[in-house]
Design brief:
alpha+beta, 4-stranded mixed β-sheet, 11 helices, binds acetoacetyl-coenzyme A, binds flavin-adenine dinucleotide
């Protein structure tokens, strides 16, 4: 496999790197502490094209490939994983889902605002009784004349209060099980749509996570995405791509922590020498570097599969499984390399360690990735 980057890829990666250092790094500790959404920074990311990278220029997007997207995701995640989850949901779940499966009217109406960050999107699949077991949707969308009546609760929704548009998955024909599920575009402010309190989180604390309640929300029929009963396939296909973005997020968190640990090991002295000269520390860095490189290869493979029109269910799940474990392992070791300094906020690695954990949980837990992977390899 040859993952040679083009000049354009390098430009995009460098632009994301500069943005992260200049715009996201200042204040990242305070935003984490206060659970403050990076509102101004997200606005700038939209203006720079980071929120609709893969959307066709026809709908106001950057028309870029998935490789560009994962390069940018990695750079943003090295510094601020709260900002990168907003980027990931907006790009690969909401924009991609609407562009790939929406009709022309839906694309014209929603994509130009979403692709430029003028509006933010959310993707609402999880429920109190339907997390990993996503077919067990309890939220209902019952057909009435010219609309659907939406009732139920979604939880853990990223961009829960900051979004303007929400893709909501709901059951229309319970007797048909997953084949009766639909996906709808819901707008903030519609009567009966309520946003619950903000979750108090371990990591990605700058991101905005809420439960949502729908009480007899009238959804126009034209807001259903795809044919009647397409909603579960819509969610699965969209998540297959989303998982590549989260794998890139995990890679970025790991790479960010590794770079900090490496630099620290060159300046911190113990027993009369820089700690990098103690083999125990040098070997930690060797392990970190190796698992990060392996993760990068898996992420690039999945991104290339998607760009080349190959199936990426398997490669995306493998990338997410491996990169998220790498993020966890590397960030724990990065704290260790920093000694006591690793345990306090100003050195950043404790935040990266807390942020890493979510990559093993959302967009399908590690156990769910193993289900996807094992089913795929055994079927083949
Ligand atoms: N593409 C297309 N269709 C797919 C598919 C895919 N990748 N995966 C499954 N399907 C189809 C199957 O073919 C099947 O359809 P048919 O009956 O027509 O053949 C249907 O979906 C049901 O599939 P399964 O029988 O495999 O269903 P299952 O109940 O065993 O569950 C699962 C499969 C993979 C475990 C799935 O439930 C799953 O992915 N769960 C995890 C949910 C998840 O990832 N949630 C993330 C929420 S979003 C989020 O988290 C965002 C964020 O944090 C930022
Ligand atoms: P459960 O499904 O209850 O799983 C509990 C444990 O059991 C896990 O370890 C799981 O791996 C394991 N398990 C379950 N089933 C099996 C099985 N068959 N085999 C082996 N092990 C199994 N969801 C959205 O829809 N949109 C969002 O924007 C979103 N953002 C999120 C943001 C945050 C910060 C968090 C914490 C979650 C978010 N989620 C979102 C929800 C997330 O996708 C779910 O938490 C995740 O899919 C797991 O579901 P669950 O929490 O119900 O855990």
């Amino acid at each position: 496999m040859d993952f040679k980057l083009t000049e354009e890829h390098i430009m995009i990666r460098d632009a994301a790197r500069d943005f992260a250092k200049n715009e996201l790094l200042p204040g990242v500790i305070e935003r984490d502490e206060k659970q403050e959404f990076p509102k101004e920074q997200i606005k700038k990311m939209g203006e720079l094209g980071f929120l609709g990278m893969m959307v066709s220029p026809e709908y106001g997007g950057g028309g870029m490939d998935t490789v560009s997207y994962v390069l940018a995701m990695e750079e943003i995640s090295k510094i601020d994983a709260s900002a990168s989850v907003v980027m990931s949901v907006n790009n690969s779940l909401v924009c991609w889902g609407i562009e790939k499966f929406g009709n022309e009217e839906q694309k014209q109406k929603y994509l130009p605002k979403l692709a430029t960050g003028e509006s933010i999107g959310a993707f609402c699949l999880s429920e109190p009784e339907a997390g990993s077991d996503a077919t067990s949707q309890r939220t209902t969308a019952i057909e009435k004349d010219d609309h659907y009546l939406l009732n139920g609760t979604k939880n853990w929704i990223t961009n829960g209060s900051t979004a303007d548009y929400y893709i909501v998955i709901a059951q229309t024909h319970p007797e048909k099980k997953h084949k009766g599920i639909n996906a709808f575009i819901i707008e903030k402010g519609w009567k009966g749509f309520e946003i619950g309190p903000k979750e108090q989180k371990l990591g990605i604390r700058g991101s905005d996570t809420h439960s949502l309640n729908f009480n007899d929300v009238k959804v126009p029929k034209e807001n259903r995405i795809g044919e009647d009963g397409f909603g579960f396939k819509f969610a699965m296909k969209t998540l297959s791509g989303g998982r590549i973005g989260i794998a890139a997020q995990a890679l970025g968190i790991a790479a960010g922590a590794y770079e900090l640990a490496k630099e620290y090991s060159k300046v911190r002295k113990a027993f009369g020498t820089e700690i990098m000269n103690h083999q125990a520390i040098a070997f930690k860095l060797a392990d970190m570097h190796t698992s990060i490189e392996a993760s990068r290869h898996l992420v690039m493979k999945a991104a290339c599969d998607k760009d080349n029109g190959e199936n990426y269910d398997l490669s995306g799940a493998m990338a997410k499984l491996f990169a998220s474990k790498t993020a966890m392992d590397v960030t724990v070791e990065a704290v260790q390399v920093h000694g006591g300094n690793g345990y306090v906020k100003e050195y950043h690695v404790e935040r990266l360690m807390r942020d890493a954990k979510i990559t093993q949980i959302y967009e399908g837990t590690s156990e769910i990735q193993k289900i996807v992977i094992s089913r795929s390899i055994l079927r083949d």
